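Checklist before submission:
- one chain only
- standard amino acids only
- sequence pasted in full

Submission:
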Amino acid sequence: MTNPRGRGRPRSTENDDALLEAAAAILREAGYARMSMEGVAAAAGVSKPTLYLRYASKAELVVAVLVHLRVGGAPALRGDLRADVVAQLRHLRQVYERTGMSLIGTCLAEEPRLPDLIHELRTRSLVPGRQLLRSAFVAARERGEIDADGDIETAIETAIGAYYARYLAGDAFDAGWEERVADVTLRGLGATPAP
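Returned file contents:
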């Protein structure tokens, strides 16, 4: 499920951005099942051939939206571990606020019928998103800020899993949620959280 490359003149980045933004808005408002390629093209103000030149299917477009938001829009690591973890958690929350968390459930439900969809979602969006946290933790370990034998993989699952747990419980994301999760996660790695 890779984007086909068009022939001829270069593609318009304005059209690319308009399509991804329109698809994100429709996903949030209508969900995956009710999103149509025609509706996305119309909302973006482009023709259907322009859309299909970039994305051969709705599944491919949805993956591109999540990659664009989750990976393309992710904040760069600054070298301050707590601030980096907080920033990545805030970014994760904002991505799902823009696309609707139900999208993940839909992708999982569609896995038997569209195995490429969840595979592409994992490899192009979820895995790179986790890698951002992994990079922050590895760099902190090299700086001596966390335990040398700290379980980084479980820390990643703890931080990201906290979002899913809170969302599924129906609890609001109050001010300070990201900071609290970051502090609990960092304590598990032997770091001393900032006051």
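Reviewer check: The chain has nine helices and no strands.
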